[in-house]
Amino acid sequence: MSATNVPSSGAQVFAITELCFLICDPRHFGDLNTRTLYNLALVSRTISDVALDALWRDIRGVDRLARLLPRDACGIFVGTRPDDEVPHIPRPDEYRAWHYRLKRPLTEADLTAFDKYASRIRVLSLGPLSWASNAVYERGGELLFDIKQLRNPVLPRLKALYWTPDTNDGSFGGYFLLNGPLEIFNLSPRSKIFPLPSTAAPLQETAMVRAKRAFTQPLLSWLPNVSEINISAGPHLPALSGEGGERLTNLQRLYCDLDVERPFVRDLSRLPHLRHIALRHVSAGPFGLSRGGFPSLESFDIATTPSTMTELLRSVSSANLQSVHYTLRHGQTWDRPQTFWDALLPNHLPSRLVTLTSFALSVYSLAMSSVAPLYACRALQELEISALNIACTDADIQQMADAWPSLKRLVLGVGLYTPMSAHVPRLYGLWPLATNCPNLEMLELQLNAGVDGPFDPARAGGQIPPRQDESRQPLQFNPIRSPCGDPTRVATFLQVAFPRLSRDSLGPRAGPLNGSWSAVGERLALAAHFIDYIPLTIKHEFNRRLVESLHDALVLQFVEGENIEERMKELLAEDPQISERRSALEGRLEKLRETQMRLDAL
């Protein structure tokens, strides 16, 4: 074989399809810019296909699809007359009402370039390119109806459609994409879409008019049967009313902020694969639901009245319910909590005590004693309460810590402008969370940190937690509008109880005495600065023992006031195996002296 026929090393490398996929996959090398992908597409046929897939996989708008049609078949117009065609896309300050329009019917030959690229699209965002008053509107959607006459579905591999229809542009053409192999459908209209008056000549209506007319029909008549539907329409669309939801047999996830009426709720309860529901406005019952409803439900996020929520929970038959989020409708009171708990944790479904890992409740006012039935759910990892006033005591914290050893997130969010509750836990009352909940990652609540004296772990009934794995998530601690006492004592307790505490978590939500909490943060930062100088890079077993001993010495210094430098010298002298490293640590000791002086100065 002649040298000229031997493929170059680069050509051989880029002929490996798997390698090309790896190069263009954003999960491995991050998102590549358009120019880089374009250059890759010129290297070889193999990587050209892969790079083109990456370029067209996730696109915004269908303008580029319209530009794939021949210019003799499709033109750019700034008006309704034939002579209003312009040779190029006008600037926004020239014409905002320009559009694409066919000059003749499309043929199979016109779609050669279209077919090459349209089949690569997996994700499409269709809507206004800007939310500003002088927005650049979406173009190209006005041609989708005509393309659909020859290619149905228009985009044969489209999996996710994020659709923001607007009456001012061609985004309504997205209606003609709903019959493809969709899996995710996200609908968020930009403005209210009013029903169109009837006409005597419906066949003469444009594709956009037909799309708008269909769009304003009841949603249940045209919603695609996909696995995930998200509707964020607010006041722009009518309620989900009437029957027809039973045809959504593929639905697994549903989010909707429209009013949801009783017939649709009944249909939802019978869907076999529905796992996640989030409904912001559920009309009041009764619904006439049986106990065998929602067989596959895993998460339930509902905003409604107490009686309606109780009826819905009673109907849930799923043995794998993991998350419940209940938002009490404005003006309602949670006056019968025991009825709610009986519906959520029924005796005939004991598995619920094991599967439930997350619970959230939004009410006007709450005493933590009313959530006591939840203590039976030993696997609970997240509890989030949102209320203007929350009555929580040290005893409540103790019960939560005893009941939920796997707790990761505890948020007791109170109103930012309401008076401080008369019943809040003390800072030292958080000790049970430190000893019993080693996986805690978020702690947000209102407390009283006005400490009177140093903290005594022995008297508190626990031991100082062992040094924890630094690779784990840091603890975010937000003391909401909480009074703060002596910053040194507060920092001492937090360092001992929560060694994974994030240095940056004491933010502006700490309240009117934020200056004191800022001082706490400064002391915690200095303590972390000190730990950084401990020789953590020493790999021998005896040196690991030294590191652990030094950490214990740091804790002792906080608790008993022992001088760190003296303790470190004693440890070095006690172990003859590390005497040879004494000189190497002298420099670190000098830095420790400086840190000790800064601590004393505070």
UniProtKB/TrEMBL annotation:
This is GED domain-containing protein. Residues 456-481 are annotated as: Disordered. It comes from the Eukaryota. Residues 506-602 form the GED domain. One of its GO terms (molecular function) is GTP binding. InterPro entries: GED, GED_dom, LRR_dom_sf. It holds the Pfam family GED.
